[in-house]
Amino acid sequence: MKNVSSVFWYSLSICAVLVIWGVIAPTQLQAITSNVTKYISEAFGWYYLLIIMILLAFCIYLIFSRFGRIKLGKESDHPEFSLPSWFAMLFSAGMGMGLVFWTTAEPISHAFKSPPGAEAGSNEALKESLQYSFFHWGIHAWAVYGVVALALAYFKFRKDLPGLISATLIPIFGEKSMRGMPGKLIDTLAVFATVVGVASTLGFGSAQINGGLAYLFDTPQNFGMQLLILAISTVLFIASAWSGIGKGIKYLSNANMGLGFLLLIILFIVGPTLYILNMFTNTLGSYIANFFDMSFRMSPLNEQGRTWIDNWTIFYWAWWISWAPFVGIFIARISKGRTIKEFLLGVLFVPALVCFIFFAVFGVSALNLEQNGIALISNYSLETTTFGVLQNYPLGEFMSLLTIVVIAIFFITSADSATFVLGMLSTGGSINPANSVKILWGLAMSAMAAIIVYFGGTQGLQNMLIIAALPFSVVMLLMGASFYKAARHDIEKKAKRKDIEKEKYKQSS
Questions:
Q1: Residue 162 — left, alpha, or beta (φ > 0 → left; ψ -120 to 50 → alpha)?
Q2: Are 103 and 363 in contact (CB under 8 A)?
Q3: Which of 499, 461, 496 is nearest to 29 (CA)?
Q4: 390 near 125, Cβ under 8 Å?
Q5: By CB distance 3.0 to 4.6 Å, which of 198, 381, 410, 496 could disulfide with 418?
């Protein structure tokens, strides 16, 4: 195929082998990957906690350091997208449809099913439920995305290097190595993580939409219905991908943020408004006060506590790392022309705050129902938790329909963003990959998602994603070190140039 690199064929071959394995022996795939995932959680849990905090500390340091004034691009470059559009695309790519479901399901689980430390159903468990939801979806996750996106944007737009993960490591390993087999292996790892992650999400997303439609309209809840949803969504996100990043993803992201906030405002008004405000304020304080305790919590002397950390915190940290190539490349692409300080402040804090607001409104509305015995929300499946919550408030039908629309658009924007990123990685880092390449990746991801759903291999491939996060976490540390080395050299070079100019000026005067 024209313009595609060898990375395309390497990653496509690996994904094909895994899909065939998932078709022939899904139980074996799930069993093997589950054992490896369990070992990683137990043996490297401490490592995940430390690496995420190192990345976050690095981001905070850059904001307040001399590096903050560096522009992601040439000095004459200006941002391509307005701040509202930029924030909307950040949020749509970074969190997507999962947020719609976890804003109700996670607080309910932490409060009534599997609390972090307190007794299930107690007031302390309710407070901790929202606190840990803030923790898992807050600035730690966005620091992971921020470091990858920062390095990619810096080397692409300021150094004119290809938009590839391998290109960001040239200052450490040299251009020859990164253009050779080691670089291709790194880029293949990034493509693999993206394809498997998005395919799993598409398969899971089609099941979620199917669950919502079945709950609301008693539509069939089976593979045929999920395949139909997947097929319609594929046509829509391919059409969006064809129109380009400046139109399709931008317009859909803006529309979705508007609809998402409309849903949020309605539920805030018809839900337990004062309770939401009180819990949001209290939880924000608890999140800040217990920030370091949660960040380094391992519970080495409490087996039950350690199991909870493995199942939730370690899982989330590995999940965010595995999604970093996809989200990081996309964020880098839309961030040209912004200073590092502006970029990191926007990436770290704005999406995190939006997540906090969504969790406060949806999570507290869910907790309120079970706490007061109105509805047993903890008995609902993940696919129907949000719909079960909305049905117990005024305008429930309207909010449920609006939720399906929001999920569908998140579904499309996530897949659209992924086709763009995969196109970049498989065409040598082109920031405008050919439509034919994006469409091929879109079809490949949808086909993989359909096979995964049909044969029940979703969990096995999600486990593969967590496994892929371990080697990629090392790549992320190297990306941060490589960026620091190159940026420091730039600043020192600029300072020397200024000194020479001053000296020339003194001599001439």
A1: beta
A2: yes
A3: 461
A4: no
A5: 198
- State the Cα torsion 358-360-361-364 to the nearest 10°: 140
CB 390 within 8 A of CB 267: yes
For 10, other C-beta atoms within 10 Å of its C-beta total: 18
DSSP 463-496: HHHHHHHHHHHHHHHHHHHHHHHHHHHHHHHHHH
Q: Using CA atoms, how far apart are residues 18 and 2, in angstroms rounded to an integer?
A: 25
Q: What are phi and psi of 182, to 5 degrees?
A: -55, -45
118: CB partners within 8 A, 6+ apart: 124, 125, 128
Q: At residue 112, does pLDDT exceed 90?
A: yes
Identity of residue 131 = Q
pLDDT digits (tens, 9 = 90+) for 56-68: 999 999 999 999 9
Among 305, 443, 355, 300, which Cα is nearest to 145's?
355
User: 181-217 and 458-508 helices cross at what angle (nearest 10)?
Assistant: 130
pLDDT tens for 212-232 read: 888 888 888 888 888 888 888
Is 15:445 a contact under the CB 8 Å cutoff? no
Q: Name residue, tokens 């008693």.
A: 218
CA distance 486 to 173: 12
Q: Six-digit token pair at 401?
A: 């329909």
User: What is the pTM for the complete model shown?
Assistant: 0.90
* Residue carrying the six token digits 């892929």: 468
Cβ 230 vs Cβ 206: under 8 Å: yes
- CB neighbours of residue 324 within 10 Å: 29
